[in-house]
């Protein structure tokens, strides 16, 4: 097992990834993308485009959905992640906040945060305390509610808890699946600030969103998935100016296509 | 009055032993979504091992070996039979049916070995009795209450304070979210089976001890009485399993104690009573006493 030394700056590299569900349904076809160290990368696309599938492949939870990687590879730094179990991803520093928050409703806020460290095995108490302090600095509201049952939190608070839970594993790459889903506009704004803050502290972010406006405002680079293939890739601000993205994801009707964005059909690689 | 206290005490002792079994059911269900129909034969295995080993090893060592071996067998059933294809949350119902097959296998072999015998487990209490206020009770029943209480408190502490307990509760709520946090689903689950097996082996001692005549090949069927206890507690709730067990134990003891007054219900109503109570409770509370949404695993 090659472990990456901490001073290296690992990147997530997905190369030519094919994913199939139940041996028949092709969900991703030769998807290639990179999340460099310390950046925010947005992944846009409609329902069923394969965004969540990509995150499942990275985190190693495809198996729970009867999905398999049929081609390609996923590496984080020097660690191979394709075909590995979720523990491998967490240990490598890649932690996912799943769509729909998925906090453990019957557990307290404090216990939810404790689950975030389960993948790392035994840790020194001061490391755990440090991670917890970081979470409570980002989300002071959670600090006030440690004994409360997570199921009784508001939607926004649950999203904060879900992010906080993932941060307890001290990730170097955070995978966020639709963090703005079902939240009030003000809370969406707050979550965006938090993502910026987490990134400023040195954690890379792969942000899956249907809220393209928010995602593109945060991201350095962005990719657009359509029916399992990468259709567009490029710097986020340039993608935001392209016709296709404006029309399909930002709800605008006019604009001129003028950019260095690479378009790729069929092969998917940009 | 003395009869009443006698019956209540017996009910308490029975309930404490059922609780060991019912807690095992619940732990397994929580961890894997499987109803373990092999629980009775695991219990019988634990009792049988204690019975055949105690002459050579002494009671304590024999029980220790029996508990460890039963835990290992339960863990192996889960790891190598039920989870052979990986931790797939969609096949709990299939695995439940597999446990019926496992039950038949273990039970058939143990029945062959035990035959019509009544095996003594060599427990230190024998048939001694003590005066407890106005009632005279069997020492083995006092031991049953004390040991069960301690062990159950220990299990609850495991749930609450250890990583394993946290992993178990988290994965019972949401398998995928738990696995995203790096919970080792296979290991957490198998350990749950081991713990349930150990509890069953321990329960066997008290089920075979005085005033029961000893271990018979049918002793494992006692587990079937803990089954309604687990169900009426809510199936996924450990406190519910405790309450359910006490209710079932108490019902059985009272019905048996006042059998002459309940003659209209016929002989042996005590055996049926647990199920009658279960049906009555479920009529009023379909998800069990402590069961809520948590009883449903998706």
Automatic annotation (TrEMBL), chain B:
<feature type="transmembrane region" description="Helical">
    <location>
        <begin position="222"/>
        <end position="248"/>
    </location>
</feature>
<dbReference type="InterPro" id="IPR052157">
    <property type="entry name" value="BCAA_transport_permease"/>
</dbReference>
<keyword id="KW-0029">Amino-acid transport</keyword>
<keyword id="KW-0812">Transmembrane</keyword>
<feature type="transmembrane region" description="Helical">
    <location>
        <begin position="272"/>
        <end position="292"/>
    </location>
</feature>
<feature type="transmembrane region" description="Helical">
    <location>
        <begin position="59"/>
        <end position="77"/>
    </location>
</feature>
<feature type="transmembrane region" description="Helical">
    <location>
        <begin position="12"/>
        <end position="29"/>
    </location>
</feature>
<protein>
    <submittedName>
        <fullName>Branched-chain amino acid ABC transporter permease</fullName>
    </submittedName>
</protein>
<comment type="similarity">
    <text>Belongs to the binding-protein-dependent transport system permease family. LivHM subfamily.</text>
</comment>
<feature type="transmembrane region" description="Helical">
    <location>
        <begin position="36"/>
        <end position="53"/>
    </location>
</feature>
<feature type="transmembrane region" description="Helical">
    <location>
        <begin position="142"/>
        <end position="161"/>
    </location>
</feature>
<keyword id="KW-1133">Transmembrane helix</keyword>
<dbReference type="InterPro" id="IPR001851">
    <property type="entry name" value="ABC_transp_permease"/>
</dbReference>
<keyword id="KW-1003">Cell membrane</keyword>
<dbReference type="Pfam" id="PF02653">
    <property type="entry name" value="BPD_transp_2"/>
</dbReference>
<feature type="transmembrane region" description="Helical">
    <location>
        <begin position="190"/>
        <end position="210"/>
    </location>
</feature>
<keyword id="KW-0472">Membrane</keyword>
<keyword id="KW-0813">Transport</keyword>
